[in-house]
Every structure is written in structure tokens, then in C-alpha cells.
Amino acid sequence: MKIRFTLNGTNREIDIKPDMLLIDLVRQLGCYSVKRGCETSNCGLCTVLVDGKPVLSCSTPAARADGKDVVTLEGIEEEAAAFGRFLAGEGAEQCGFCSPGLIMNVLAMEKELSHPNEEEIKEYLAGNLCRCTGYMGQMRAIEKYLNREGGQ
């Protein structure tokens, strides 16, 4: 089946198998920031933005990307680097394996929620698992990033 979509600002037209998952499609197209973790929609490592909303690509059929705008970390490098500096500043990057999914969700949350409090941040990011940090450094980084000058 043929689908047409935009990936990180580039129009794509590609033949896919009907059972192909979005994670496999974006990785096939060179977007290796999209990680495979649990493959059960529980860890957030595979998060991409579809029409600006976070989507777990490990459980999303690639066919659902037809006519949509799909963004991975490769498509928002400047914004990701800006938030990444906050993560590093709080010592919250540790191994970094979970960072791409976390960053995608934080950047989506920044656009979706206006001045979220700590509970709203935790609720929004509830599906992002990290085995290294204990989340405190990540929370400090997120709060500092969202409250930065020129930010929200």
C-alpha cells in the first residue's frame, strides 16, 4: 500500500506493508533517534509527533501516517538541543537512552500546556520510563526549561 506523508519537513511517498509499524518506517527512513524499548506502549522511547501530538510509534500502524506530518528528534534538533542543555545541567541525561522520547514529549507538552505545575508535568510524562535518573533531575530540568526567559 502506498502512503504519502511529511517526515521532518520532507514530503515522502512510500510503499509499505499493511502491518508495518510507524517505528519501523521512520527507522527505515534514517530516524534512529526513535528507540525500541518495551514494544508494548509503556516506556515512551518510541515517541514521535504526528500532527504535533506525541504518538507511541511502536504501536501505531505506519498507514496512520498517511496524509500526516511526522516529526522525530532529527526534525527538531535545535529545540531538542536547547532542552538537552537543561537535562545536562541537572545531571539528568545519565545513559541518554530515554532522552529522545522524553524530549519529544517535553517539547509537545510545552506547546500544549500553558504554565503546567509539577503534577501536570508528571501526568503528561507518566509514560516515559527512565532506569537511571530517579526523575528528580529530569523534573528540575523540565521546570527550569519551561520557566526560562523567553520560554512559556
UniProtKB/TrEMBL annotation:
Keyword Transmembrane helix: no
Pfam families: Fer2, Fer2_2
CDD domains, per the entry: fer2 (cd00207)
Listed Gene3D superfamilies: 3.10.20.30, [2Fe-2S]-binding domain (1.10.150.120)
Keyword annotations of the record: 2Fe-2S, Iron, Iron-sulfur, Metal-binding
Domain of life assignment: Bacteria
Segments forming domain 2Fe-2S ferredoxin-type: 1-76
Residue spans crossing the bilayer: none
InterPro entries, per database record: 2Fe-2S-bd, 2Fe-2S-bd_dom_sf, 2Fe-2S_ferredoxin-like_sf, 2Fe-2S_ferredoxin-type, Beta-grasp_dom_sf, Diverse_Oxidoreductases
Iron-sulfur found in the keyword field: yes
GO MF annotation: an example: metal ion binding
Protein's UniProt name: (2Fe-2S)-binding protein
Organism annotation: Candidatus Lachnoclostridium stercoravium
